[in-house]
Amino acid sequence: MELGEIFEAAVKKANKKGVKRFPLMTETVTEVTETTCTTSDGVDDIRLNAIDTELDSKITIYPKIGSKIIYGRLNDTDDLFVLKYSEIDRIVIKMDKQIFEMKDGKFRILNAETNLKTVLNDLFSTLENAIIQTPSGAGKFIDLNKQKFKSLNQQIDKLLF
Predict the structure, then answer these.
(1) Which of 73, 88, 112, 151 has its CA 20 to 30 A from that of 129?
(2) DSSP E strands: which ranges in 76-136?
(3) 73, 69, 68, 67: which is closest to 23 by C-alpha?
(4) How many other β-carbons are positioned within 10 Å of the β-carbon of residue 37?
(5) The whole model's pTM is what?
C-alpha cells in the first residue's frame, strides 16, 4: 500500500458515520459540585474527572466560580469532562484513606486515623499545660515558652484547616 492510499484510508476511517465530533469548548463556571460543574451557557454535568467512578486514588481540581474552563467529550459518548482551568478553588488528592487538600491558602493532611492539624494543635496545647517533674518538685514552662507555644499554634491554624 502506498502512502497516498494509507492517508485516504485513514481519512475515511476518521470520517465514518456515527462518530460524534466535538470541538473543545471554553465556558465560564457558574456552579461546582463534588463531581461536576455547570457553565454559563447552561451546560451541566461536566465531570471534574474524566473517570467518574468511586476510585481509591484520584486528583480532583475544583474550578473557581466565574473562572473559565476548557472541556471536551469522552470518546464517542455524551459524557463531558474538564481539561483545563483558568482559576482553581481547591485541589484534593486522595490515595486510599489519605487525603491532601489545598484551599484558601491553607492545606489539610489526614488519613483514616488522624489529621495533621489536630496532632499539632494537641501537641502545643499539651506543652502549654505541661507539668515537668524536677528534683525540687513539679515545674512548668516559663511564660516566654508558653507564649511561643501559643504563637506556633496560631501559625499552624493559619497554615492548616
Answers:
(1) 112
(2) 80-85, 88-95, 98-103, 106-110, 132-134
(3) 73
(4) 25
(5) 0.78
DSSP 3-state assignment of 66?
coil
Between the CA of residue 48 and those of 23, 61, 82, what are the distances in Å?
18, 7, 5
**Rounded to the nearest 5°, which phi and psi values hold at 146?**
-60, -40
Instruction: Kindly state the cell numbers that stand for 61.
Output: 481540581
* pLDDT at residue 142, as a whole number: 92
Rg (CA), the chain: 26
Q: Which three cell numbers stand for residue 106?
A: 491553607
Distance CA 106, CA 100 (A): 11
Sorting pLDDT into bands at 50, 70 and 90, what band is 10?
low
Residues 99-141: tens digit of each pLDDT = 999 999 999 999 999 999 999 999 999 999 999 988 888 999 9
